[in-house]
Every structure is written in structure tokens, then in C-alpha cells.
Amino acid sequence: MRFAPGKQGKRMSRIFDVDTHLWRTFKSVSETRSITRSAVALCKTPPAISMQIKKLEALLELKLFVRGDDGFRLTVIGEEVLAAAEKILAMHDNLFRLKNKNPDSELRLGMPDDYALFFLQGIVKALARSNPDLKIKLVCKTSSFLIDDVDQGRLDMAVVAVPESRVMEHSEYIRREELHWIGDARLVRAGHPIPLVHFPDGCICREVSVQSLQFAGMASEIRFTSESNFAVFNAISAGVGIGVGELSLIPGDTPIITSSLLPALPAIRMSVLSNDDRISRAVLSRISTSVVRSVNAVCEQNILGKKRPENAFAVGAF
Hints:
Elements (H helix, E strand, L loop, with lengths): L2 E3 L5 E3 L6 H13 L2 H7 L4 H15 L4 E4 L2 E4 L1 H22 L8 E6 L1 H18 L4 E6 L2 H9 L5 E7 L7 E7 L1 E4 L11 E5 L5 H12 L4 E6 L3 H9 L5 E4 L21 E7 L6 H23 L15
Helix pairs in contact: 1-2, 1-3, 1-4, 2-3, 5-9
């Protein structure tokens, strides 16, 4: 960049703006090595492409291309300018992508039905304090479907349960939870299939219990299936079958089965997943922190027996 004499003998830098269209044309010609091919790619005429290259060279006062038998080739300084142009265009395009990321927009939040029973009140209160303008749309599904919804951009965030060994991108760890068999222990009889009460396919708890029984060489049959948390709990209470629940979410009046006939269950991990297609990663990170704190607070209170939600009937809707 040249300097021109200023007042009192000082040298003042000459400031100019380069239109992003010039940078895009320059980048295209550097890739195609052809004015004609770049004209087709950019839906312009060849004279317009030539004029834009000349204008850019005049603004920069640099020779960017040399013409040879194989078309237009970048000069040494042209290579350096191309590297800068690519950064400029990347930053420019990223700024326009931010238009669709409104931190005050609706948060599409997902969690299993039993998680909503225990955690939703605390989460909503925490988010109302930290993000008073945030609108929330809640979706209740089993974890497998919620994970897919986040991956596909149908949800911005979800609280899910996954096997402890599973690693997921864009997730924040909440806590480790032990699983326990719950229900009427008299339903567990040697030589008989274990009757199970569960949520539909996609329920991690359903997969864990069935697989654990299979690994132990034990037969099982799902006697009752429902998407309703209330219905599943009542089926267990009625003795239709047994279920599986997390230690911190098992209601105080629900018996934990300690039968030696049943295999031990692996632990699961609670996590918060997020997708920043609509809401910026920074905003999602702050929301996720509030969710993690709220969920942990409820779980710890339940374990200590200080608080049990009324009509609690969580039995593994995750």
C-alpha cells in the first residue's frame, strides 16, 4: 500500500475498500485459469470479468496474473493475495450466516418424558433468569430419536441418556447414573422369561435391559409398551412386568429389585447435545451450563431424599 504526504509533512495511509465481488472474481480466475470459464461460473460476461481483474490490480497496484499457454497463472504476489482473499471471503460469508443465528429466538429443546417430569421446572426457571427473552418449545421423545433430531437440525438442544462408553460430538457431560431393576421381585422366576415393561423402540433403557438379559443367557418378553410415562409406571405397579430406572430418579415408593437372578446393569451417562445451526455456539454453551447445573441439583436432592416430585413415576423413559 502506498503512502501519500499529509499535513505537516506526516505520511498518511491511503484507505480504500475492495468490493467482495472483486475478491470472488479474482478467486474464480485463480481456480479456473480462464476468463471465459470464470464468466460462466459467475454468470457474467468475459469483458466484465476482465474489467474486474484490472480494477482489482489497479486498486492494489499489483500484478496478480500472467498469461501463458495454459491460461492465467498467479504471480508470486498473486499467491499471497489469494491467501488473504480466501480469509476475507470466509469471514464475510460467516457474518452472513450469523443472520440466521438469533440468540433471542425460540429454543427447540428435547428431553425424554420422565426427564421433563423431574427437570423441566428447574431448567425453565434457570433459563428465565439467564435468558429472559428466550422462548422454549419442548419436544418429548426417547433419547435415540432426540439424538437424531439434534443431528438433523430439528432440535437445537436435547437432554439425553446414552451408554457410558458412547462418545458424541457437541455434547456436554452432566453426570453418571447407575441403573436398577424396579418393580415386583416376585415376577423374577428362574426358568421363566422376565416380563418387561418399557417404552417403544429408541428407549436406551429398553435396549440396556434386553441386552443385559441376553448376555446373561436369560429369556425376556416385553409385556407392555407405551409412550406414556404414566401408563408405563402404572403397568409396573400393577405387576404386569418389571422396569429399569436411574437411582436418582426412582420414586421412594417404587421397590428396587435386588434379586440375584437378574444381571447387573451398566451405568449410563446423562448429556446435553446441541446443534448451532440456528443459535450461536456461545449462546448454546451458556444455556447448556444452566441445564447441567439444574439437572445435577435435582438428582443430588433426590438421592439425599430431600425432595421427591409429587406423582413421580420415572421408570426409564430414556
